[in-house]
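Students often ask why inverse folding is considered easier than folding. One informal answer: many sequences map to the same fold, so there is more than one right answer. In these notes we will look at a single instance of the problem. The structure comes first.
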């Protein structure tokens, strides 16, 4: 997949899905599906399958604050490429773009720059100065060549339908509800990072851990202990493990860390990239009276995690 920052390098004409697509969750994939090469009719095979997004996120531009992301840039690129998207165009969201009216955005960006022939958006997509443009404006230009994806919801037990959205996934993660996040994402929520040198305190109590260096904008779930499946490029199968996110109060930790203990693993992991799937939230982080008490709890956590993982792998 080509990643385009320079408008002069865009492969056109295009079939586009337009939006921010943080996390590339199930709802996003419904928006992207109509413009994938496999979905294009014979008359549209000459169009380049393109996702059009913004960098930075418009909310970052206006608030001047970084957003936490379900899928930072490299993850987002990998997810879109896995779907079959041929081209990701990142529009620089700056003062000039923010000033464009809806009509100017359609003419200058979509028609002149991208040469859009087919377009797919979510039902609530807005664009242009003060978000004045909507799907009706797009319909007036593209007619039947516009696909509008309705709101995507899911039923959870007997509760009211839950909207599948990036914000609701963040809310679920903040509560430790990784099962709910998984359903909305269509895959387990994962953390991808390289193993870095830690304080090696885990070794002293018999539980060596791999410390993950994650992108600064990665959205972290609730602090606590999780059952996880760990993927390493050098290993053909996922490795079972337990992960702790938090400040490690028992050993007077001074910053939030993400540490993974792998079951049945021998070998040096430093500088290797781990892809960690969150399977089950086990308990919140807590401070113990002694290292012996901490060790006893970690042993219990490992057994709980193993039980959850063994069940999940067989069902």
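Output (designed amino acids):
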């Amino acid at each position: 997949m080509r990643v385009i920052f320079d408008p002069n390098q865009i492969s056109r004409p295009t079939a586009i899905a337009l939006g921010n697509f943080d996390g590339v969750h199930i709802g996003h994939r419904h928006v992207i599906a109509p413009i994938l090469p496999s979905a294009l009719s014979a008359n549209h095979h000459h169009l380049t399958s393109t996702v059009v997004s913004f960098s930075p996120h418009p909310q970052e531009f206006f608030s001047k604050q970084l957003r936490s992301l379900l899928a930072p840039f490299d993850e987002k690129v990998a997810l879109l490429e896995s779907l079959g998207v041929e081209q990701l165009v990142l529009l620089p969201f700056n003062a000039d773009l923010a000033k464009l009216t809806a009509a100017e955005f359609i003419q200058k960006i979509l028609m002149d720059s991208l040469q859009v022939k087919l377009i797919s958006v979510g039902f609530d997509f807005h664009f242009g100065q003060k978000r004045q443009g909507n799907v009706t404006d797009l319909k007036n230009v593209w007619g039947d060549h516009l696909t509008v994806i309705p709101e995507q919801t899911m039923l959870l037990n007997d509760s009211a339908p839950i909207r599948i959205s990036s914000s609701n996934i963040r809310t679920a993660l903040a509560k430790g509800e990784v099962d709910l996040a998984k359903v909305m994402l269509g895959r387990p929520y994962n953390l991808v990072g390289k193993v870095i040198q830690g304080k090696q305190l885990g070794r002293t109590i018999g539980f060596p851990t791999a410390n993950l260096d994650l992108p600064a904008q990665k959205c972290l779930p609730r602090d606590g202990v999780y059952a996880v499946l760990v993927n390493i490029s050098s290993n053909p199968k996922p490795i079972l493990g337990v992960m702790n996110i938090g400040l490690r109060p028992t050993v007077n930790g001074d910053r939030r860390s993400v540490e993974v203990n792998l079951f049945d693993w021998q070998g040096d992991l430093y500088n290797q990239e781990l892809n960690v799937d969150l399977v089950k939230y086990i308990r919140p982080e807590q401070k113990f009276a002694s290292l012996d008490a901490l060790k006893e709890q970690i042993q219990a956590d490992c057994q709980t995690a193993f039980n959850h993982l063994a069940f999940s792998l067989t069902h």
